[in-house]
Design a protein that fits this description.
Layout: E1 14-19, H1 33-52, E2 61-72, E3 81-91, E4 95-104, E5 112-122, H2 133-140
Antiparallel strand pairs: 1-3, 2-5, 3-4, 4-5
């Protein structure tokens, strides 16, 4: 695993923008860590919906978060404009590990890096299942793997 502090904007293939809100600040006048986890969840699920056809209300399988982590390097606060980057660091049979970088607009070094691991389960029985083909194809487009860096993205 790459040291999160050494990651740069170019290490993340997918981005969303986020304008911080006054309510994102905590009593110390910086973005509360719970807001960061909200942003991690939002970018992952936006990608799954838009690029993998994963519809939370109707898809036969859903992702459960089984672990999460974060490292904070620089404060972020209102009224910062942020770029949130997403990549996949591990893609297993039923699980996927994501890494998210939070960048102030125009900066190449992340203020925060974190992520989580999803295990896909059958919607009703909550038993682990293989990641579906369409979801897997979409996730492969974000996979960080030296052997794939020069390959064309997977077509959906």
């Amino acid at each position: 695993m790459t040291d999160p502090k050494l990651l740069k904007r170019d290490d993340f293939p997918y981005f969303l923008s986020y304008r911080t809100r006054w309510s994102d600040n905590d009593q110390y006048s910086h973005m509360n860590n719970t807001i960061f986890y909200h942003l991690v969840d939002s970018i992952v699920n936006t990608y799954l919906i838009e690029s993998c056809g994963q519809i939370p209300q109707t898809s036969p399988s859903i992702g459960f978060v089984v672990s999460s982590w974060s490292q904070f390097f620089a404060p972020v606060s209102f009224p910062d404009l942020l770029d949130i980057g997403l990549r996949v660091t591990k893609l297993g049979n039923s699980s996927v590990s994501y890494e998210v970088g939070l960048f102030k607009s125009g900066e190449d070094a992340p203020s925060v890096v974190g992520g989580f691991t999803h295990v896909f389960v059958e919607r009703e029985k909550r038993k682990s299942v293989s990641i579906g083909e369409r979801v897997r194809a979409g996730l492969k487009n974000l996979l960080v793997d030296a052997s794939r860096r020069d390959q064309e993205p997977v077509k959906l």
